[in-house]
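@channel sequence for tomorrow's demo:
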Amino acid sequence: MHHVLQHPLASHILTHLRDRTTKPATFRTLCHQIGLLLALEATKDLPTQDASIETPLEPMQSPVLAQSLVVVPILRAGLGMLQPYTDMFPSVSVGYVGMERDHDTAEARSYYCKLPPLEGCRVLCVDPMLATGGSAVQALNVIKEAGATDLRLVTIVSSPEGIAEIESSHPDVPLITAAVDRELNDLRYILPGLGDFGDRLYGT
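structure tokens (generated this afternoon):
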């Protein structure tokens, strides 16, 4: 159920995201760029319906989006992936789920949740890093409990362990990611990874 983005530009962007010398301002730009590619991939099968319009020359039937889109970033790092959706999709709604990982136990805890109506919508939960999968599983639980039935998880870098956790806990949720890395280290960080995404995004 996981799909890895296959695009040479995505590989190029990801290389510079991984580079430890990349400064926060550049890191944010790169995050937006790869987020845009992932947004296009995650929505390429959105349903459409024909609408009646008039070109400058004649009337015609032409497709428009037929399903509402909801994007739910996992705070705080997921915010870096949000803008492509608000830029491109005219009627997108945005929800938020706040998850924080304890650096000693690697366990996730929820501290905030605000969701729009989800029934009948394509819901994309976005978070740049899928490490243990704990935060994503909890966020997906919350989103499903709120009524989501057409739900996908979108990440930039994923670990095999995180993918296995998602496939075990939410086998019905497709995962779209830009990269599957080698493994988690003893501190539950992804290797080779790119470090703490939120810290690099915000310079903290």
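heads up for whoever presents: The longest strand covers residues 150-158.
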